[in-house]
Amino acid sequence: MKLFDFAYCGFDYYRKLASLAIQSPEKWSFSSNNDNSILKNYIEHTFSKVYDEGKVLISVDEKTAVFNTGLYANYNQVLYALLTKNKVKAKQSWYLDGFHTQYTLSMMGITELPTRANYFTDPSSLVFDTNCDIVLQYSHIFGDKENLERIPESVRQSSIRNMIFDGAVQLAKHKIDANYKTAIPQYYKGKIQLLIPLCLTNETLPDLALVVSRSNDLKQYMGHTCLTLEMAYNNARLIARPDSLWLQP
Predict the structure, then answer these.
(1) b vs e for 72-105, b when ≥16 Cβ sit within 10 Å of the residue's Cβ?
(2) pLDDT reported for residue 195
(3) Is the pLDDT score of 189 beyond 90?
(4) Does residue 90 have a pLDDT over 80?
(5) Using an 8 Å Cβ cutoff, are 197 and 223 in contact?
(6) Torsion angle defined by CA atoms of residues 239, 70, 242 and 233, in that order, rounded to the nearest 10 degrees
(7) Of the residues 17, 89, 164, 214, which has the fewest C-beta atoms closer than 10 A?
């Protein structure tokens, strides 16, 4: 279920997001922008996840609905999204009122609150095992037009692009071996995958993020596709703010 199908978010949706960004301050926009695009992506995907988990809590009188954003205000106060019945005749039954702390909701008489989205059950899935090899799916990395266009042109046109990628993967493994936080988890289609930096044109500056997932026999990782750094950050932020120097907004 998408947030905009479930609720009317109002003409002031971006103002509500801006208010939430102030309540839970971090860098919610890419580069020098101030559009809160990261936060928008986060809230909308978080809603879909908690809806699938049955964690959009509708009150007994069906006047309010609440979901846990997974974000925190000052003093470690959890922030919740409050929805009220849509008074305007529309396809959505609900209206996004805004984002509130438990204290504010309690003052409104709302005391039963849902838990946050759950993205993993096995914490070990969040850590890359450097004893495993990475097998790249070159047929997709180079064969898929959309993926190919993400690769720097100098590499894309190179006659040794396979060698460049192989070298970038080995460099990434060395970086992960030195600091396990280099491999960053993301959630995709019900599974945890890991994002690792690919330095293709400069060994200190990542150009792309390689998406890898553990094989069924747990003996290797499969390198499926490459994401732009913005795409990778949006995906990673759903689980937690990345604690890594290479993936920043």
Answers:
(1) ebeeebbbbbbbeeeeeeeebebbbbbbbbeebb
(2) 98
(3) no
(4) no
(5) no
(6) 70
(7) 89
pLDDT tier at 91 (50, 70, 90 boundaries)? confident
Mean pLDDT confidence for 163-188: 96
Tokens of 148: 């190919």
C-alpha–C-alpha distance, residues 64 and 24, integer Å: 23
Name the band, by pLDDT with cuts 50, 70 and 90, for residue 155: very high
What pTM did the predictor assign?
Answer: 0.95
Contact at 8 Å (CB) between 132 and 220? Answer: yes
- The Cα–Cα gap between 161 and 200 comes to 9
Structure confidence at residue 3 (pLDDT) = 98
* DSSP 8-state code for residue 2: -
pLDDT bucket at 218, cuts 50 / 70 / 90: confident
Please tell me the distance from the alpha carbon of residue 83 to that of residue 68, in angstroms, as a whole number.
Answer: 12
Report the distance separating Cα 165 and Cα 54, nearest Å: 42
> Token digits for 248?
């920043």
Strand ranges (E), the chain: 7-8, 57-58, 64-73, 77-85, 94-101, 133-136, 184-188, 191-198, 208-214, 220-227
Rounded to whole angstroms, the Cα distance separating 242 from 188 reads 16
Q: Where are the alpha helices (DSSP H) in 136-216?
A: 138-141, 145-150, 153-156, 161-178
